[in-house]
Amino acid sequence: MSHVVKKRKLDKSRQDRLYFDSYTDVTIHEEMIADHVRTNTYRMAIMRNSESIRGKVVLDVGAGTGVLSIFCAQAGAKKVYAVEACSIAEQAVKIVQQNNMEDKIEVIRGTVETVDLPEKVEVIVSEWMGYALLHESMLNSVLYARDKWLLPGGIILPSKAELYIAPINDPVVEDRVQFWYNVKDQYGVDMSCMYDFATRCIMNSDITVNSVTVEDVLSHPARFAELDLHSVTVEELLRSVKGKFRCEAFGSAAVNAFCVYFTVTFPCPDKPLVLSTSPFKPETHWKQAVLYLDPPVDVVQDTVVTGEVSMYPSEESARHICIHVDYTIGEHKRQAKTFSIPDWSSEAQPSVTV
Questions:
Q1: Tens digits of per-residue pLDDT, 279-325?
Q2: DSSP string computed for 312-346
Q3: What is the dihedral of CA 340, 346, 349, 350, to 10 degrees?
Q4: CA 125 to CA 156: how far, in whole Å?
Q5: In 3D, which of 302, 300, 222, 314 has the Cα closest to residue 259?
Q6: How far, in Å, CA of 321 to CA of 289, rounded?
Q7: Paired strand residues for 254
Q8: What pLDDT, in 10s, does the model give residues 215-257?
Q9: 20 to 30 A Cα–Cα from 323, which one of 70, 86, 116, 188?
Q10: CA distances from residue 13 to 19, 110, 318, 322 in whole angstroms, order as listed
Q11: Three-class SS of residue 196?
């Protein structure tokens, strides 16, 4: 088990303030809109569901700049309630006006847990996914909206989420720790004693958000959890989202990390539409969640990697996710490590709904 430094627990109001403050700058909204895979998949999913949206009342949870609300209006929605808690709602109002959608879209400033809608809705749309799917805990708000505002038989876009894991070899990390053995050849100073220190610093317990290349993935990914947004409860998310996995190595390599990624599925009349953050698909702003192992473990063709993943809210901040992995690689003894995303004061930023 990795050593975890005890941090001061943030009260919920401060957690929420830090979370919503992260959405007030244009940069993060620019990044989200510019993510073509993400934005275009939502647009296609909404347009393909036009028969289910036309003439209906829609709730956009965490509307951000309101682009999803506009997509819904373009698909024929009778009314869209765009609920947004942070000050970007002011820009959403201007964007709605600029697109002449004031008669169809109403931007409501506030959290979905506190606003009062004038009517029930037939469709909920939301881009709630964070790093490793559950970082930020915005799914809780979507489920709250489902239970309070969605009419029986209503639709949720997206309606399903799945989580995957795969062993990987990150060559950049190997190069960084090996660097200290090469200093003597370059400068005549032996700094190899830095190897252990560098390993502890780099291969720590942080959830690292990075792009994983296909060449670095060492097996077929294994699905370990599925969330049905029509039935999953907040209590289940608070307890743990968990599941077992089994992978078989493609060939000889050193496993120095796991990568975790997710997909979400939109129901469509012809066939479901999937938004994937897999390293085998075009890159998105979510990239992948990388969990570094120490020490690395060598595998060969068909070496079996098994284990169980548990994802749950951090004790310090309910909006932060922890990932605990129990794993066995080949004939090695079972290992366990717990990972978490660094605080908002770090360089890592949460994803955002726009």
A1: 999 999 999 999 999 889 999 999 999 999 999 998 888 888 999 99
A2: EE-SS-TTSEEEEEEEEETTSPPEEEEEEPPPTTS
A3: 40
A4: 6
A5: 222
A6: 11
A7: 298
A8: 999 999 999 999 999 999 999 998 889 999 999 999 999 999 9
A9: 86
A10: 10, 14, 11, 20
A11: helix
CA–CA separation, 79 and 65 (whole Å): 17
> Which residues form the catalytic set?
127, 136
Q: How many CB atoms sit inside 10 A of residue 213's CB?
A: 12
Q: Determine which helix (DSSP H) or strand (DSSP E) holds 27, and give its type and residue range.
A: helix 26-34
The 8-class DSSP code of residue 70 comes to: H
Q: Which whole-number Å values give the CA distances from 250 to 167, 193, 303, 305, 348, in the listed order?
A: 10, 33, 8, 11, 32
CA distance 13 to 247: 41
Contact 115, 83 (CB under 8 A): yes
Other beta carbons less than 10 A from residue 195's beta carbon = 14
Asked if 316 and 338 count as a contact pair (C-beta separation under 8 A), the reply is: no
Q: Which two tokens stand for residue 295?
A: 């020490």
Quote the CA–CA distance of 38 and 16 in Å, as a whole number.
Answer: 25
Please, are residues 289 and 259 in contact by the beta-carbon 8 Å criterion? yes
In this structure, what token pair is assigned to residue 273? 């539409």
